[in-house]
Design a protein that fits this description.
By secondary structure, this protein is of the alpha/beta class. The chain is built from 15 helices and 19 strands.
Length: about 450
């Protein structure tokens, strides 16, 4: 892609892991509203659960997550007790007419590997006490290889975990020092070997570009080293430098960050190297082996997108636990209070610790389906989705006109109401989605770069 084209479309845009997006959540959605939404869920539909662990032993300076740093176990033990209380209280608000089932469980953070093995056992025991975990459920955990240990991996096996996501980011030592995350290739390799030895075969890894001191050459070496580990899936993220939101990012000198041209070159290098190694590109920023369920879901048109990014999880209801966790229910979105102390007081009182959210309208659902299809498949037939919603495609004439204008830059191909991203347009899919976002012009929030 020419640099001028990159700069033209590289706007500050949402990542579209939801629609409406998080900047539009408001405090009219509270714990009482959320409890009523939970009570209305149908027991015959499986649930998805997300559990947030907001602690790390060290702060990675690139981090944009809601996390706290601790070297001591006491606050973690207190947190686990509160998380167990939230699981008990929240899942008790589901309809008692029938036990619910769960098709997907994801532990995120922070660093879930900061938990003790017995913490993990207690949390999973509480979940099994309240709901039935389906035999083919995906049970996944994000892992910091620096804090993963044998006891925890043994507990993961006992508890039925079958997927782990390893944060690599970059193997170059100069880059690692610049972001305060030093971990060797051998360390990561040993953790992955330990997982596979225990029968945990699903291995995802995270890579980043746009980090301080990164170069195209260092990126190439990191990708090739990563492929030696044979991950099933890779997530590739551009570093979002948002020091106005995450103060610790001020520790990264801006002069060490790659400029626009270098950042794009790094993105292209990752794309090309992973294609060389025969990984299938998934949407905007994921890659998978051809036989991986995510690649098969893309092929079958069953790929989905939620707050964890691209997923094979098709549950209509995702319930989030822990401070800042977001739930996605048929009625709308609800986000837990990000302040740890307030969240803890609420859950200990048996109430839902919701700070804000948004109810979704039929118009939102229509636009969400279009955006989700674009983000996942890089193509959409707007008329087809309108027909499924019982409405006319004529309502989207202005949006289609705006997108047709992008054909001059070879971003998209438009045939009637069918939109297809080109190879040039793939990294700019968020700019195409933005044409359908009626909330975007009303936000004062600041988003990450589109690439």
């Amino acid at each position: 892609m020419q640099l001028a084209l990159y700069e033209k479309y590289d706007l500050r845009l949402p990542r579209y892991t939801s629609y409406p997006t998080a900047p539009h959540f408001h405090n009219a959605i509270n714990g009482q509203v959320f409890a009523s939404w939970l009570g209305a869920l149908a027991p015959d539909q499986p649930l998805s659960l997300y559990l947030h662990v907001p602690y790390c032993e060290e702060m990675c300076w690139f981090c944009g997550c809601n996390t706290k740093i601790t070297k001591h176990y006491k606050p973690i033990g207190t947190y686990v007790a509160a998380l167990l209380a939230e699981l008990d209280s929240t899942l008790s608000k589901l309809s008692p007419s029938q036990r619910f089932s769960v098709s997907h469980i994801h532990f995120g953070g922070g660093s879930p590997t900061i938990l003790k093995a017995d913490d993990l056992r207690a949390i999973m025991a509480k979940i099994r006490d309240k709901v039935d975990i389906l035999p083919d459920a995906e049970i996944a955990i994000e892992m910091d290889p620096r804090t993963a240990n044998e006891d925890l991996m043994d507990a993961m096996t006992e508890c039925g975990f079958n997927r782990a996501s390893i944060g690599i980011q970059d193997f170059n030592i100069d880059v690692q020092k610049a972001v305060n995350r030093v971990q060797s290739f051998d360390l990561v390799r040993n953790v992955i070997a330990g997982l596979r030895h225990r029968g945990i075969r699903g291995v995802n890894v995270d890579l980043m570009y746009g980090l301080p001191n990164q170069t195209v050459q260092s990126i190439r070496k990191t990708v090739d080293q990563t492929v030696e580990l044979c991950p099933d899936r890779l997530s590739v993220f551009g570093y979002a430098h948002v020091p106005w939101m995450k103060k610790h990012q001020n520790l990264i000198p801006t002069e060490t960050l790659p400029d626009t041209q270098e950042r794009w070159a790094q993105y292209e290098e990752i794309q090309n190297r992973l294609a060389h190694h025969r990984y299938v590109a998934i949407g905007l920023d994921h890659f998978a082996h051809q036989a991986d369920p995510m690649a098969l879901a893309l092929q079958d048109g069953a790929l989905h997108r939620n707050f964890q990014g691209y997923t094979t999880d098709r549950a209509e209801a995702l319930i989030g636990f822990g401070p800042s966790a977001i739930s996605s229910l048929p009625q709308g979105y609800a986000q837990n209070d990000p302040a740890l102390a307030r969240w803890q007081r609420a859950v200990e009182a048996g109430t839902c610790a919701i700070e804000k959210g948004i109810a979704v309208s039929n118009e939102d659902r229509l636009r969400r389906d279009i955006i989700n299809q674009l983000m996942c498949s890089l193509s959409v037939d707007v008329a087809e989705i309108c027909a499924a919603h019982g409405t006319s495609v004529d309502r989207f004439t202005p949006e289609l006109d705006r997108i047709r204008a992008m054909t001059a830059d070879d971003i998209v191909k438009v045939n009637g109401t069918h939109i297809e991203l080109t190879d040039t347009g793939r990294p700019l899919v968020r700019a195409v989605c933005a044409a359908f976002d009626t909330y975007l012009n009303h936000t004062h929030g600041r988003h990450s770069q589109a690439v």
